Automatic annotation (TrEMBL):
GO terms for biological process: intrinsic apoptotic signaling pathway; release of cytochrome c from mitochondria. It is a multi-pass membrane protein. This is Uncharacterized protein. It comes from Crenichthys baileyi. The lineage of its organism: Eukaryota, Metazoa, Chordata, Craniata, Vertebrata. Keywords: Membrane, Transmembrane, Transmembrane helix. The keyword Lyase does not apply. Pfam families: Ifi-6-16. It is found in: Membrane. InterPro entries: IFI6/IFI27-like, IFI6/IFI27-like_sf. Belongs to the IFI6/IFI27 family.
Amino acid sequence: MGLEIITTITGGAVGAVGPVALAPVVLGAIGFTSTGIAAGSYAASMMSAAAVTNGGGVAAGSLVAVLQSAGAAGLSPTFAMVLAITGGTIGTCVGRAVGCLSSIFQRRREKKKEEDMEMVISGIAIMALIMWLKK
C-alpha cells in the first residue's frame, strides 16, 4: 500500500473519530458542563452576549443553547454523525495532501541521489583518465 493511500485513510479515520471523542472535553473546557454553564468561562461570555442580543434570554436552537445541551447531555447521535462526517472529510483531504507532498519530496530525494551518484562516477572516470594520461 502506498504512502498516499495510508495517509489518506489515516487522515480520514482521525478526522472522523477525533472530533467526536474530543467534543465533550472541549465543551467542558470552555464552560459548557453537565451542571450548566460555568461562571466566568468563555461559555458564560457567549451566553451573556446571546442574552443581550435577544433582549434578555437565550433563544432556543441558538448556538449557545445547542452547545449547552451537548455539554449537559452529551452529543446527540445526529450531531455526532455530522461531526464525524465533517471531520472525516476534512481529515481525508488533509491526509491526501500530506501523502501527495510526501511522495513529491521522496521523488525529489531519489532524483538528487541519482544525480549525486552520476557526479561521483563522472569524478572517478575523470580521475582515472588523468592518471592514465600521466603515464
